[in-house]
Amino acid sequence: MNQKLTVLETIVSSYKRVIIGFSAGVDSTLVSFVCNKVLRGNAFIVLARTETITKEDVELARSLATTYQFNFREIEYNELEIENYASNPVNRCYFCKHELYIRLASIAERENIPFIVDGANLDDLGDYRPGRIAAKELQIRSPLIEASFTKHDVRAAAEYYGLPNYNKPSAPCLSSRIPYGTPIDRASLEKIALAEQYIRQKGFTNVRVRHFNSKAKIEVDKKDVGRLLLLSEEVEARLEEIGYREVEIDREGFQSGKLNAAIAKK
């Protein structure tokens, strides 16, 4: 790990000045921390506040920025206004990332920053990630990939540095809970956010509420499915209050990217 971190810090040092898209996930937190450690004020760390990031992650991002004295700023825009986004095509993430990188590029040009970097790691290359196409097109640098970091390496490095979110579950944007082809709107995103927040408050870590219009399909870790079933009446009542007419607990348990499975296979 010491050797890997030395390689990562050397790569970051070569950038001189960077701008980082920061989401408070462990990947972007590690990249932001290392860039701040190596480049100090020459690392511009930017949080994009949109409808698809949870309030908890916004609060965490602000807390981390304060704790580690990041050169931090926030931008805000409406992802649902991005062309081709709300219709939810299978390459939705391409349009999302393209918009983010264009906005970061605008800041980079204004501040004379040569590189935009992201938090992608080697494991991301094996998943269905249309956003990687946007990153390639716009020449986004990925220091974790350049330093050969897997997701396991990222968490180990974050723990080594003492980052408080080193074991934070992966939390892709709320739109990822909606099947491709189903239009995305603000009301659906709010329902998903409220439902997942409620279930996490019951002590569950990995939580996904897959949104099928009026039906919610809940995923938690396989080992926790039995405990969730014991709370099913209470959970169903709360989700019905939120706006779901039908609630199902997925007995197979949580699987990251389950809605991507068929596409990734192809």
Report on the structure:
The structure is a single chain. With about 270 residues, the chain is an alpha/beta fold. The protein folds into 2 domains: about 1-160, Rossmann fold (3-Layer(aba) Sandwich); about 175-265, Alpha-Beta Plaits. Helix content is about 45%, strand content about 15%. The chain has 11 helices and 7 strands. The chain has helices at about 1-15, 25-40, 55-65, 90-110, 130-135, 145, 150-160, 185-200, 225-230, 230-240, 260-265, and strands at about 20, 45-50, 70-75, 115, 205-210, 215-220, 245-250. It has a 4-stranded parallel sheet, sandwiched between helices. A 3-stranded mixed sheet has the order 5-6-7. A hairpin with a 2-residue loop joins β5 and β6 (about 215-220). α1 (about 1-15) packs across α2 (about 25-40) and α8 runs antiparallel to α10 (about 230-240).
Sheet bearing the most strands, described?
4 strands, parallel
- Strand order across the largest sheet: 3-2-1-4
User: Which runs of at least 5 residues are low in confidence (pLDDT < 50)?
Assistant: none
Question: How many H/I helical runs?
Answer: 11
User: How far is the N terminus from the C terminus?
Assistant: 36 Å
Q: State the CATH class of the largest domain.
A: Alpha Beta
Q: Based on DSSP secondary structure assignment, what is the total number of beta strands?
A: 7
Structural class: alpha/beta
Strand content: 5-15%
- What's the pLDDT, averaged over the residues? 94
CATH topology of the largest domain: Rossmann fold
Radius of gyration: 19 Å
Overall geometry comes to: globular
Oligomer: single chain
Topology as a string of helices (H) and strands (E): HEHEHEHEHHHHEEHHEH
Helix content: 40-55%
- The name of the CATH superfamily of the largest domain reads HUPs
The CATH architecture term of the largest domain is 3-Layer(aba) Sandwich
User: How many discrete domains?
Assistant: 2
